[in-house]
Design a protein that fits this description.
The structure holds two protein chains of two kinds.
Chain A (H helix, E strand, L loop, with lengths): L26 E10 L5 E9 L2 E3 L14 E6 L9 E8 L4 E6 L3 E3 L7 E9 L4 E4 L4 E3 L4 E10 L4 E9 L1 E2 L6 E2 L4 E9 L5 E9 L17 E8 L2 H10 L3 E2 L4 E7 L5 E8 L2 H20 L11
Parallel strand pairs in A: 1-5, 4-6, 5-8, 6-9, 7-10, 8-11, 9-12, 11-15
Antiparallel strand pairs in A: 1-2, 3-4, 12-17, 13-14, 15-16, 17-20, 18-19, 19-20
Helix pairs in contact in A: 1-2
Chain B lengths: L2 H12 L2 H10 L14 H6 L6 H17 L1 H13 L3 H14 L3 H21 L3 H12 L6 H11 L4 H23 L4 H12 L2 H8 L12 H12 L8
Helix pairs in contact in B: 2-10, 4-10, 4-11, 5-6, 5-9, 5-10, 7-8, 7-9, 10-11
Classes of the chains: A mainly beta, B mainly alpha.
Chain lengths: 303, 241
């Protein structure tokens, strides 16, 4: 387990008073490996986890793709608290496919001494396909959160990777938007041979720099980042299907091509989580339609 | 101080060619094509996001900050590499910057302007470093991004790092403000006020980013990114970005 560090979190390294960093229950770990079985069925072959991470049994509930394993990642600890560290590794072997999400929004609690960090590695082998569509993250007052993600994708594979960040607990008390200390989110795209394709680091420190200005969040409260890594011809078909727009006070959508012809990046802004989630699902549906010839099913009414 | 000494100091200051070079290559008349780009402002104006001096000021600030925390970091690394005669360092900065420029039109802009600057530089100055960089740009070995080109050029001209950073920030803000005069209802006085205010923050910004590694380049301007995307897929073409 490697934990990344960052200059912006240097000042948040004091040991939490309740439980120290690394205490069992505060250092989550997850390793999931999907592969095709001898009958050609995509299955969750290997699973290794440490508390507080819980993984539900792989279910085949997707009506459009009943052959696809769907897995929800949960946490027995509830929200991410001061000093939590989590590492998760998801591998999709040659030709396999999967849908991975989280059971509910991830709340990033108020922090006083330390910070919370998550490292992720998604590895997709030849012709693999993965939809990673987790529920939103909600940073609270004084949250300090570091996320470092590596996307290692074979040139023939397709990955849909999304993240949704709320501005905060919008309806808590008088409203708590952009009251967190640090949100540092980085994503690196690579090939299996180690070749770097692109790198994005979003560093948001609302108390240091205004995020409400024109060009940044402006009047929007929620943002989503979607990385679609796929072969160029597939990416071009997806690109053609997405029309960027901006409607102040409602939602906004943008798409552009990633460097190295490695895929696309989509940005979404909104006022509430629901419409942003809906747009993210629509984009995922376009990807699935282009790659697998089937759309996403309708979302469950309780999600 | 003797009158003769005073005159000598004055002459030395005036004859410090690096200042003259700084002015020449920071001037908006420098033929690198900056006038053709708006950094998403054209879409911002068309969508009604930027419509007056206040909204323009906020937009330019967002673009300038994005540039300071990203492009300028690569420029500083390229400058240091060029001063240390490390061509590998220049190439590293060039590659790293193009990996973090996730907007297609943004990459095109940096590559076109960078190439123009290096072509101009190798015409005006005899420098093996500039010639090598130009040769690699032409062969496709190097992207030749504009901030890295600035770093190399300014190092060759003997312009110091903080001055280069100031020139870079001025160039970015001036490019968007120049575009604003053509697509937003603002006056020259409005744009000068914005420029004056933003440039006052440059020393503090330099202090903040000067020690950044290439991995620390960062950006968070989702609305600018979306506006750039609207331009990329749209039909408005007064500007190329």
């Amino acid at each position: 387990m490697t934990h990344y560090t960052a200059r912006e979190l240097e000042r948040y390294r004091e040991e939490p008073k309740a439980m120290k960093v690394g205490t069992p229950g505060k250092a989550g770990y997850l390793n999931m490996e999907f592969e095709l079985d001898t009958c050609g069925k995509s299955i969750l072959r290997n699973l290794d986890r440490r508390v507080p991470v819980i993984v539900q049994q792989a279910l085949y509930f997707d009506e459009q793709m009943p052959e696809m394993p769907c897995v929800y990642i949960l946490s027995s600890g509830g929200q991410n608290v001061d000093g939590d560290r989590c590492s998760q590794f998801v591998t999709v072997r040659k030709g396999a496919f999967a849908f991975v999400s989280t059971g509910a929004a991830t709340k990033l609690a108020e922090m006083r001494y330390n910070h919370s960090a998550m490292e992720q590695v998604f590895t997709l082998e030849e012709n693999a396909y993965l939809e990673y569509l987790p529920e939103p993250m909600i940073p609270c007052r004084h949250t300090r959160f570091l996320s470092c993600t590596r996307l290692i994708v074979h040139p023939t594979a397709t990955l849909f990777y999304s993240e949704i960040f709320m501005g905060g607990r919008k309806y808590y008390g008088d409203g708590e938007l952009f009251k967190y200390d640090v949100l540092s989110v980085s994503t690196r795209g690579e090939r299996p041979d180690g070749m770097s394709l692109f790198y994005e680091k979003m560093l948001i420190e609302p108390y240091r720099r205004n995020v409400r200005g024109v060009g940044v969040m402006h009047g929007f409260d929620v943002f989503a980042n979607i990385v679609i890594m796929s072969p160029e011809e597939i990416a071009e078909k997806i690109y053609a299907e997405i029309t960027p727009y901006i409607k102040l006070g409602e939602t906004a959508l943008g798409v552009t091509r990633l460097p190295g012809k490695s895929g696309l990046i989509v940005k979404i802004l909104g006022m509430e989580a629901s419409p942003v989630k809906e747009i993210a699902r629509e984009i995922c549906s376009i990807v699935r339609l282009v790659v697998k010839g089937k759309p996403l099913p309708e979302e469950f009414p309780w999600r | 101080m003797e009158e003769q000494d005073k005159k000598a100091i004055l002459m030395n200051t005036l004859c410090d060619t690096s200042v003259m070079r700084l002015l020449q290559f920071t001037d908006s008349a420098c033929p690198v094509g900056a006038f053709a780009f708006s950094c998403g402002l054209e879409s911002a104006a068309a969508c009604g996001i930027v419509h007056d001096a206040v909204t323009l000021g906020e937009y330019v600030r967002a673009v300038a900050m994005q540039s300071a925390f990203c492009d300028a970091v690569a420029a500083l690394h390229a400058h240091r590499a060029a001063v240390a005669d490390s061509y590998g360092g220049v190439m590293d900065a060039d590659r790293a910057l193009m990996m973090v420029k996730l907007n297609d039109e943004g990459r095109l802009m940096l590559m076109r302007m960078g190439r123009k600057l290096i072509e101009l530089g190798s015409t005006l100055i005899k420098s093996p470093l500039l010639n090598a960089f130009l040769s690699d740009i032409r062969s496709g070995e190097a992207f030749g991004s504009y901030p890295v080109a600035q770093g190399v050029m300014f190092a060759v001209l003997g312009i110091k790092e903080p001055e280069m950073f100031a020139s870079h920030q001025y160039g970015v803000a001036n490019m968007v403000l120049g575009a604003a005069l053509r697509c937003v209802k603002v006056s020259h006085v409005d744009t000068q006020k914005i420029l004056f205010e933003l440039m006052g923050e440059v020393p503090e910004l330099y202090g903040e980013i000067k020690d950044f590694t290439l991995d620390e380049m960062n950006s968070f301007c989702p609305e600018v990114d979306i506006l750039a995307s609207i331009h990329e897929k749209g039909r408005q073409r007064m500007f190329m970005s």
